[in-house]
């Protein structure tokens, strides 16, 4: 068993806007590219262009249809480690390889002491851990710890690779422990939420829900469009239902 550090106020994490994510996978591929040569290097990658590709991906984007008929829409859902405040993935680790940093809350794995027992992946309700069969160790999102403090990079580059790559600005990085940070303000103004909060892991990453959709079926000459309020709640409910089903593996 590994103990957690005393909580500090700094909580680095991501805020992902589900309203504007277009599911382009740029975040997933840039994550894979950076981490293949970075902190978690190398990341296994087998048969990438074949019929049955496999490997370690620290950030995955899922897309699915919600609603029915004219109310249907596609929701894209990026998923990676939430850098939880109460992460059982850390406390179950028998070697201390899985740990949470006191200074900024980032959850990491030390590849030198990981024995590949997979207890942490069973403990994570978000399916955020990736066992690398080639290396025999567990890997996960490091919040690009080797970018955000990297003074060999220009200051504008000291953000996670996924945030830098996102073409729509759907991903934001910052200190969610600081109520005055841009990420905290966006969560407050958009009723952002953590995934599966009932589990008690206190995920630091937050999602901004899809906005109610405007009805595109506007007759010629009509000034105002009609709001479809059900889409908002429906999206959130489906997201949780999906998470329950797919992530409880
Ligand atoms: S999302 Fe999973 S791997 Fe990440 S800190 Fe939370 S429990 Fe651990
Ligand atoms: S797989 Fe590695 S990090 Fe995970 S619990 Fe086992 S030793 Fe710890
Ligand atoms: S890069 Fe941005 S828009 Fe594309 S899938 Fe990732 S979060 Fe969504």
Task: Describe the 3D structure.
The protein has 249 residues and is an alpha+beta fold. Helix content is 22%, strand content 19%. The chain has a single domain (12-247), classed as Alpha-Beta Plaits (2-Layer Sandwich). It has seven helices and 13 strands. The chain has a three-stranded mixed sheet. Strands 2-3 form a two-stranded antiparallel sheet. It is globular, with a radius of gyration of 19 Å. 35% of the residues are buried. One iron/sulfur cluster binds next to loops.
Which molecules other than protein and nucleic acid are bound? iron/sulfur cluster
| Number of β-strand runs | 13
Residue stretches low in confidence (pLDDT < 50, at least 5 long) are 218-232
Radius of gyration: 19 Å
Structural class: alpha+beta
Termini distance? 22 Å
CATH class: Alpha Beta
Percent in strands: 15-25%
Instruction: Give the strand line-up of the largest sheet.
Output: 10-1-11
Number of helices, counting only DSSP H or I runs of 4 residues or more? 7
Average pLDDT value? 88
Count of spatially separate domains: 1
Query: Judging from the principal axes of the Cα atoms, what is the shape?
Result: globular
Order of helices and strands: EHEEEEHEEHEEHHEHEEEH
The CATH topology name reads: Alpha-Beta Plaits
Biggest beta sheet summary: 3 strands, mixed
Helix content bin: 10-25%
Highlighted features:
three-stranded mixed β-sheet; 7 helices; binds iron/sulfur cluster; two-stranded antiparallel sheet; about 250 residues; Alpha-Beta Plaits
């Amino acid at each position: 068993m590994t103990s957690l550090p005393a909580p500090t106020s700094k909580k680095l994490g991501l805020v992902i806007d589900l309203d504007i994510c277009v599911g382009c996978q740029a975040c997933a591929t840039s994550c894979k590219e950076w981490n293949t040569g970075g902190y978690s290097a190398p990341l296994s990658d087998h048969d990438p262009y074949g019929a049955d590709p496999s490997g370690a991906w620290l950030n995955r984007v899922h897309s699915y249809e919600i609603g029915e008929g004219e109310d249907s829409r596609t929701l894209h859902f990026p998923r990676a480690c939430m850098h939880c405040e109460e992460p059982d993935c850390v406390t179950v680790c028998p070697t201390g390889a899985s740990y949470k940093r006191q200074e900024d809350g980032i959850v990491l794995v030390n590849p030198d002491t990981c024995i590949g027992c997979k207890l942490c992946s069973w403990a994570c309700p978000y399916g955020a851990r990736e066992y690398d069969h080639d290396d025999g160790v567990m890997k996960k999102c490091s919040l690009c710890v080797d970018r955000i403090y990297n003074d060999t990079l220009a200051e504008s580059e000291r953000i996670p690779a996924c945030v830098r790559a996102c073409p729509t600005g759907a991903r934001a990085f910052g200190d969610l422990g600081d109520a005055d940070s841009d990420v905290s303000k966006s969560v407050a103004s958009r009723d952002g939420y953590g995934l599966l909060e009932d589990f008690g892991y206190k995920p630091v990453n937050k999602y901004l829900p899809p906005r109610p959709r405007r009805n595109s079926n506007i007759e010629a000459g009509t000034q105002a469009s009609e709001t479809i309020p059900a889409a908002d709640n429906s999206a959130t409910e489906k997201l949780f239902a999906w998470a329950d089903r797919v992530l409880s593996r």
